[in-house]
Amino acid sequence: xxxxxxxxxxxxxxxxxLEFEALxxxxxxxxxxxxxxxLGALHARMTAPPAQPMAASAEGGLMLDFRHRFPNxxxxxxxxxxxxxxxxxxxxxxxxxxxLGVAGPFDAAAPFYLAxxxxxYLTFLTPFVAFVLAVLPVLGIGFDRSGQSxxxxxxxxxxxxxxxxxxxxxxxxxxxxxxxxxxxxxxRIHAT
Amino acid sequence: xxxxxxxxxxEPALLLLVSLAEGPKHGYAMxxxxxSFAGVRLGPGTLYGALERLERDGLIEPMDxxxxxxxxxxxxxxxxxxRAGIRDMHRLALTGRRRMLAR
Lengths: 192, 103
Fold this sequence. Notes:
- The complex is a heterodimer.
- Chain A has a 3-stranded mixed beta sheet with strand order 1-3-2, with no helix packed on it.
- In chain A, a hairpin with a 2-residue loop joins strand 2 and strand 3 (149-157).
- Chain A has 6 helices and 3 strands.
- By secondary structure, chain A is of the alpha+beta class.
- The model of chain A is unreliable at 52-71 (pLDDT under 50).
- Chain B is mainly α.
- Chain B contains 4 helices and 2 strands; from the N terminus they run H-H-H-E-E-H.
- A two-stranded antiparallel sheet of chain B has the order 1-2.
- Chain B starts with 10 loop residues before the first helix and ends with a helix.
- The chains are: A alpha+beta, B mainly alpha.
- The A-B interface holds A 12, 16, 18-24, 26-27, 32-33, 35-41, 43-44 and B 26-28, 31, 43-49, 51-52, 67-70.
């Protein structure tokens, strides 16, 4: 049960980890207790104040700092989700039609999605734009040259909404690119 | 500070303050004490969530300890918050009792 302490934010573990571990050692590992610890960790992550960015080490190198701010997704994160929506919906409707044979929703949306080349291009671009919108605000990259060494700092502000949108955007983009590759490259090879 | 309010989330915090009103205790002692006087078995996650909040609000403070188990005690602010919470609950109980007697 002590391993569950790893679910808590690092700053929390630093402050309460030892005494919490001592408490868990005194309790039998009942399902209710385990669930309570997991829920406590979730609550701690949701309410944890953002961590201070780490100072780059004197030796140089790459520093990683994950910050959690669940209640406050960045406005670009919300914008990214909205931008992603048409592309993701198009993918879902396409999969429904061509993989599961449920053509109704796709056919209903087809007049919009297939209105012309500009709309098709825009739909194709949505996951890429959404990915950039979601990822840029949570990445902080800095370099500092002092003397002989170059120090780099990468701060990842791990806001769940931004990261979730980035992940889904990447999957949708991969599906679009994969489809284009299959259709235009392999299709032509096959045709010849 | 929502101690004694109708906010359900404040209940573990209030129980902890009542427990610490008797004297400093570490986590396990608080759990056992609360179970004995209130019949409520606080989970460890709930206990430390409330402890963290109370400490952040300055209502309790940790004491030095040579072992991993760290005792906590009420601060002056914590004692005031507890008094206010008990007063609110007392008023609530009196109102409820009066209205039930009038039925």
